[in-house]
Amino acid sequence: MLIETMPERAGHLEPANLPACERRTLPGVISQRACLLYGARWMLAAIRDAVHLIHGPVGCAYYSQTVRQKIYKVFSTDLGEKEIIFGGGEKLEEAIREAVSLFPRSSAVLVYTTCAAGLIGEDVEAICKQAAAALGLPVVPVNCPGFGGVSQGDGHDVAAAALLEHFIGRGSAGTPLENSVNILGEFDVQGDLKEIEQLLQRLGLNIICAVSGRATMENMARARRARLNIVHCGRTGRWLARRMEERFGIPWRKVSFFGLDATAAALQAIAAFFNRPEEAAWVEKEAEAARQRALPYLGRLAGKRVALFFGASRMGSMAGAFRELGMEVVLCGSQFGCQEDYTDSRRCLGRGTPLIDDAHQRELEEFWHRYRPDLLVGGTRERFVAHKIGLPFLVFPQETSPYAGFNGFVHLAREAAALVGAPVWRLSKNELLREEGEEKMAEYVRCVERGKKENGRSSL
Ligand code: SF4
């Protein structure tokens, strides 16, 4: 047994096969998952020309205003006890009018439902229709009450369906635009999209719409005229690509721009689709140049052990990128991975690397204590536990620079090497106990005490 788990959770940690997934969290377990509303916000928050209105208590709006470490402007109907008993329809109508009057140049209103709105059970869709007719712009319900699904992954699907039905699907039909692509499931974290765009431009291609890192009402309406959909995020990107293929006949390719080999393979697959085999030469050259730039960092990372735990769609592709850095992936997991996500990861990692689904804090802590990876990669929630244990932690989606494309790989190598080699971890209690024994620990305690006296602080 890798670590001790509750009997009901046994199948969620798998060393050789696919873990059990897409199931509700065990009641009482402190899951790292988010709710359906947050999943929808993860997909839609970056749409700049829409008003985002959270129909629920103000706490839901506060929770969902920060997405990928960025604070977005949201409105809230601020539902209270009175509305939960007598209904919040009037408050919603008023809030839509007020938000549009404050931002009259908005192209649409997105109305997100929450647990409270779901419990009241009023007809949000009808209210949105009436408001749309009165205001003359799309007012779109995003039906995502927090309790309405297994995890935030279901919220991603609800959001993608809303985009397809109300914006992409209602766009103007027309002849396909030459040399044009959409990117589905790319959120432009710290400039990732710009890196990808520069590479596509060297292939002579233009991005019409990136869902949703660069999605506007105008470019979503043109998205159905693309020649190819490039899927960069697993589950939701694939879902959207399949629907767009069925409805508009747009073919799609699933690729990854994380890692040198994956980026080169992605560009070659796209070049092959557009029948431009001559582009392969510069792709190889760029990949090699990036490898040379990353070399000073690779020496420091070779043979180090890394554990990954974050959103589902990037699991497989990031596992590939870390292996290219010369690191051994000792755990790969996600809060809400689906079967396809774990199949991708297993294909990349082979049998033997444990895959874990919906791990709770105690399981992660036990794994990290027992296996002591040299680097942990995950979301902000896991960061503090890692720091308490005394392990280097890399936040992903990243907070600093792009990780996508050839340049992104060099950034990833530099940041991972800086973290793994940072001397600060030698000061952590666990590290001292493990490596230097009690003597060093006593020295550390003396040093802390001295610091307290000198700085007049009660603790470090
Ligand atoms: S779980 Fe429900 S109440 Fe909590 S933030 Fe999500 S929508 Fe709001």
TrEMBL record:
PROSITE patterns membership: NITROGENASE_1_1
Residue stretches making up the Nitrogenase/oxidoreductase component domain: 35-418
Gene3D superfamilies assigned to the protein according to its UniProt record, in alphabetical order: Nitrogenase molybdenum iron protein domain
InterPro entries: Nase/OxRdtase_comp1 (IPR000510), Nase_comp1_CS (IPR000318), NifE-like (IPR049939)
Molecular function as annotated in GO: nitrogenase activity
Assigned EC number: 1.18.6.1
UniProt entry keywords in alphabetical sequence: Nitrogen fixation, Oxidoreductase
Similarity comment: family membership: Belongs to the NifD/NifK/NifE/NifN family.
PANTHER family cross-referenced by the UniProt entry: NITROGENASE IRON-MOLYBDENUM COFACTOR BIOSYNTHESIS PROTEIN NIFE (PTHR42956:SF1)
Protein name per the record: Nitrogenase molybdenum-iron protein alpha chain
UniProt organism field: Neomoorella stamsii
